[in-house]
Write a structure and sequence with these properties.
The protein has 242 residues and is mainly alpha-helical. It folds into two domains: 74 residues, no CATH class; 119 residues, no CATH class. The protein is 54% helix and 10% strand. This is DUF4194 domain-containing protein.
Length: 242
């Protein structure tokens, strides 16, 4: 005998992703008892229901505690990213940074604008759909900016094909667009500051905080200053002749 929780889990395992507009997905996002039933069943299999308010889709993922038992030790795990080579993983991070982060900014700016408007009924104001806020990037621009660093055209084309097959991106002519998994499988809270203020700071034109380059030194007391002066005097004396 099947039930709605069983059907939803089976659909996710079969199709990998489902739209948030799906009837059972909507129920999972709003019905606490239904969601608890789904989470309990998935946890028994080492899985979790993965959703993101900024994304238009939901999916399943391994529970964090089970990942090392599936992917192996830390060293092996780092090289077991869905079969992606290092340059493929690097390309994935670049695409996430160039597509998802600007989309987030547009979604949040739109949300703040709505909140600033007067609303006598106090209705909830949902975020704009990802497909409306996500704009994608040009393949030619990506190749010009990152081709030399990511294996040039041949390697980039191979990795883009693999990312497209995995559901991270979609290709439409010259444009590379957000796929159903790009905003779901990346840990935004962990990566966002590291990307903007670190690896891609020059791309986003956001230099690292000046405070990070300042190393405070403790104030020396009077005894410490005297010892420092004595050491300086000793160093300044000429060496004896041999």
């Amino acid at each position: 005998m099947t039930d709605d929780a069983q059907i939803l889990i089976a659909q996710l395992m079969t199709h990998q992703t489902l739209s948030r507009e799906n009837k059972l997905v909507k129920r999972a996002l709003t019905d606490e008892a239904f969601r608890l039933d789904i989470d309990t069943r998935l946890a028994a299999c080492g899985l979790k229901f993965l959703d993101n308010v900024y994304a238009d889709n939901v999916t399943l993922a391994l529970a964090r505690e089970i990942e090392p038992k599936i992917f192996g030790s830390r060293e092996v795990w780092q090289n077991n990213n869905l079969g992606l080579a290092r340059d493929g993983v690097a390309l994935l991070v670049v695409l996430w940074a160039m597509i998802i982060l600007p989309k987030r900014e547009r979604q949040e700016a739109h949300q703040h604008a709505l909140e600033d408007q007067e609303d006598m009924f106090g209705k909830d104001k949902p975020l704009p759909r990802a497909e409306d806020a996500s704009m994608g990037i040009s393949y030619r621009a990506l190749l010009a900016d990152f081709g030399d660093k990511l294996g040039r055209k041949t390697r980039m084309d191979i990795n883009l094909g693999q990312l497209n097959k995995l559901g991270f991106i979609e290709r439409r002519g010259d444009m590379i667009l957000e796929g159903p998994l790009l905003d779901l499988m990346m840990d935004t809270d962990t990566l966002r500051d590291r990307i903007i203020n670190g690896a891609l700071a020059d791309i986003f034109h956001r230099p690292a905080p000046r405070e990070a380059a300042i190393i405070p030194f403790p104030q020396a007391d009077a005894q410490g200053e005297a010892q420092a002066d004595a050491q300086a005097d000793a160093l300044s004396e000429p060496l004896p002749e041999q």
